[in-house]
């Protein structure tokens, strides 16, 4: 089994004592650090041979090149000391779960369930932006899981978009079915996000 440790080193030392630096971060004071993931029993992992890795590298470079300025530090969770993505996702998750409960257990709540579905969709944008900014700095192993997390998120959003369209078109039963499918996707993507955050130990960048 591979054990993983983290350390901060100055950027520019890409190779040192056999350890590879996967990403760099910037503090609010302009200081640059590399965050390394160190395989303590390291051997060739063949990570570069993974099919998704070239796409991941292109996407990460594109996101890191966006001129976000100081908003990047905020999205990465540096001021509060933790990522803001897990906080922001509570809006869509809470709204969509509540809509399913209303649909299932509260008669006459069709309008409220429709409103909650719409508010949940409106909350997706900020959560997704923060998530992609986080993801752009992840090393390969975590980035692969993060990409799967994003793809399942897209499936969930599609389901809830279809649910809202059905509800607004006067098709509440169809809307409920799409909503239940979306909630199933939310459960899967939540498990993937939890795996990245806890099992793979991804958190906020150090403030330096």
Description:
With 208 residues, the protein is α+β, with helices and mostly antiparallel strands. It folds into two domains: 1-45, no CATH class; 48-199. 58% of the residues lie in helices and 12% in strands. It is built from eight helices and four strands; from the N terminus they run E-E-E-E-H-H-H-H-H-H-H-H. A four-stranded antiparallel β-sheet has the order 1-4-3-2, with no helix packed on it. Helix 5 runs antiparallel to helix 7 (140-168). The chain is elongated, with a radius of gyration of 20 Å. Mean pLDDT is 77; it is low at 1-45.
Which short descriptors sum up this protein?
alpha+beta, 2 domains, 4-stranded antiparallel β-sheet, 4 strands, 208 residues
Q: Summarize this, please?
A:
The protein has helices at residues 53-64, 71-76, 85-88, 90-105, 110-122, 124-135, 140-168, 172-199; strands at 4-10, 15-16, 19-26, 32-39. The protein has 208 residues and is an alpha+beta fold. A four-stranded antiparallel β-sheet has the order 1-4-3-2, with no helix packed on it.
Quaternary organisation: single chain
Order of helices and strands: EEEEHHHHHHHH
Query: What would the principal axes of the Cα set say about the shape?
Result: elongated
Strand content: 5-15%
Structural class of the helices, strands and pairings? alpha+beta
* Main sheet: strand order: 1-4-3-2
Point out poorly predicted stretches. 1-45
Q: What is the mean pLDDT?
A: 77
User: What is the radius of gyration computed over CA atoms, rounded to a whole number of angstroms?
Assistant: 20 Å
Helix content: 55-70%
How many discrete structural domains?
2
Report the end-to-end length measured between terminal Cα atoms.
Answer: 31 Å
